[in-house]
TrEMBL record:
Name the UniProt record assigns to this protein: Methyltransferase domain-containing protein
Ranges of residues in domain Methyltransferase: 41-153
Presence of the UniProt keyword Nucleus in the record: no
SUPFAM superfamilies to which the protein is assigned, alphabetical: S-adenosyl-L-methionine-dependent methyltransferases (SSF53335)
GO molecular function: methyltransferase activity
Keywords: Methyltransferase, Transferase
Pfam families: Methyltransf_31
GO terms, biological process: methylation
InterPro entries in the record: Methyltranfer_dom, SAM-dependent_MTases_sf
Amino acid sequence: MTSHNDLIREQFRLQAPTFENAGFSNRGLAWIVEQVAPRREDVVLDVAAGAGHLGRALAPLVSHVSAVDLTPEMLVQGRRLADESGLRNITFCVGDAVRLPWLDRQFDLVVCRLALHQVADPAAVVREMVRVTRPDGRIGITDMFVPAAELAAETNRLERLRDPSHNRTLAREEILAMVETSGADVVSESFEDFGLGLDDWLDRTQTPDDARAQILSRFTEELDGGPATGLTPSRTSDGRIRFIHPWITVTATPRA
């Protein structure tokens, strides 16, 4: 039987060659960096890093970054891009976010960008992040969130049609509760809406034609006055469809 981790690896193996498409993978990096407030002396861990977009954005500002991810192809991309940028203080390693291969209290700053919705057990990821953070360290978690509970089922249905490895977009309250129950105290929350073109979004995951048609039909239905999807579609002046992903960044510190 195919595990959820296998689905993730296969999906991101497919995405790896195009993960640097202009504007797509770099969304929100400056905003996240501002929220997590890196320090020059920080030793950083980027969890479920993909190609290390956040880790590479942090590397010039800190002492060292380790980027860990399930998908080797993504890490190869990250290493290549880091080399092209002249970054010498970032390392890439294969590993599972629910079983991080580090001892307790190893890092000053532990971050995770756009991964909680992907994994089968997001609470376990948060627990591991807290575990490897030093007592005076910080944790930064960024992900999409569902703006209203009644929209969660439809939002996640559409996300899974597009990407079978998508598990579940969480509500803000769920993310905060995971942080608190993992032994950390929330310090700050910040919110941003990020717009995406529907065609680019579907191309990124090589979504099959039948699933594309279902998603397009559902967005069109909402635009014509039908039930909300939770993704707030709109039409541009030339008729293309765009939509919104609301993001949250939570920062926290391990509880004493």
